Input
Amino acid sequence: MIEVRGLAKQLGRQEILRGVDLTVAKGETLVIIGRSGGGKSVLLKHLIGLMQPDAGEIWIEGENIIGLTERKLARIRRKVGILFQGGALFDSMTVEENIAFPLEEAGERDPEKVAEKVREMLDVIELEGQEKKMPVNLSGGMKKRVGLARSIIRRPSCVLYDEPTSGLDPVVSDSINRLIRRLQKRFGVTSIVVTHDMKSAFHLADHIAYLHEGRIYFYGTPQELEISTDPLIQDFMLGRSENGAPKSG
Amino acid sequence: MFARLLTALGHSVVSFVVYVGDVVVLAGETISSAFAQKIRWRLFMQQIVEIGLLSQLVVVITGAFTGAVFAAQTYFQFNKLGMGSAVGAVVSVSICRELGPVLTALMVTGRVGASMSAEIGTMKVTEQIDALRALAVHPIDYLVVPRTLAMMVSMPLLVAEAVAIGIAAGYFVAIFLLEVNGTYYMANMVRWTQMRDIIMALTKAGCFALLIVFISCHKGLTSKEGAVGVGKATTEAVVNASLAVLIFNFFLTMGLNIIFPAGYQ
Ligand SMILES: Nc1ncnc2c1ncn2[C@@H]1O[C@H](COP(=O)(O)OP(=O)(O)O)[C@@H](O)[C@H]1O
Ligand SMILES: [Mg+2]
Output
């Protein structure tokens, strides 16, 4: 369960978030859509305490995480995985070491067990045979998949995905979408997915939220989004720029 | 006009105090982490290699040529007074107390401090630090503690090495090139160089190690976005750490001289 109330954040002179309210029920998938630079990544970073808001509350499984110290946040962070927009792989480590990192940090000392889990993950992200490569030698999409494996290998109860399929070919995109769906179905993982890809949004979402100018402009089921007649939303869904939608900040 | 000058001055004083405060806080967190959290010995060993092993060439050359040139200059002056054999004492005491620790620290700042702030700064701007935090790993535990411990171990050894090589080079220059009497040279050197000079060298080495590691890691961790940000952080780390070494050295000399007074007594 994730609940966000009145979240506001100013970065430099720019008000990025101006009072975001959101609720994600346990086991549900919320898709957040919105224009580039609209603050979606910033919002996700708040949810695991990587950024501190100027105002508002964030409740994760019944606990307000605002104001917790870095060490206290560790407990929350073990329950919540995040896939960064750029993958954020450790560039001093191989693919294999990146994926194994969370396990080793959690104190798993048995190299057999670690290797087994890593193989399983490589299979899931379809990167078998690439485990010895360094991140600099991977394409953007491969980095993202490795980042995904690293964020879910410890089976968090909640995963935040920042544009998991952008920059991937349609086939791999589809397999990532299926994976997200499977994690949700099989393990009851609560997910928040930021995406520009309307196809995967409809495929994954229980609810969709449209973040616009620092607030949730629309919140509803995919069906409700589809029949919405709001011009801003229609512009976004159809990818129109000329219809005079106000530029987002 | 005068008021504006005063305001500007006030601002820079305040930001300097804030900066020093930040570095001290980092030092405090590192020390408390080193005692309270598990220590990553594998990363520590990697840093030992990075700091200790890969600094060998730099330290050997620094020590050797400093000792050599210092022996030569001292000889040129002392020989006029007929005190050529006193060169050994002067060279060894000043290399122990000042030149060895300070020059080694400056070289290590340039090599190791720069690479620490560049590496950590790059991790910062590519979200790798955020990734660590998101995986419930405290960046201080993972990045700063192993580097600090490795510096604490490496610096005294590097300084000892630079001092030994400097003294040996001074001996070589004085005896073989300038034809000072070797027996008197050695006798004077041993008589005037004492345990406390060596303790002073090692104490300074430990203090400089901490200055370099905290200033460099702090700059890396607070690096601003982009390649420009990392470059700036690296330059500032080297400049600040070098200045801190030189300034601290003066106070260390004055302070330690009370505990370990120089000279033959
Ligand atoms: N650490 C930061 N410092 C200052 N500004 C930032 C920072 N991170 C993001 N921003 C700004 O916040 C805005 C929203 O960014 P982001 O959340 O990445 O957008 P998106 O919705 O595309 O993910 C952008 O204008 C960006 O420049
Ligand atoms: Mg983004």
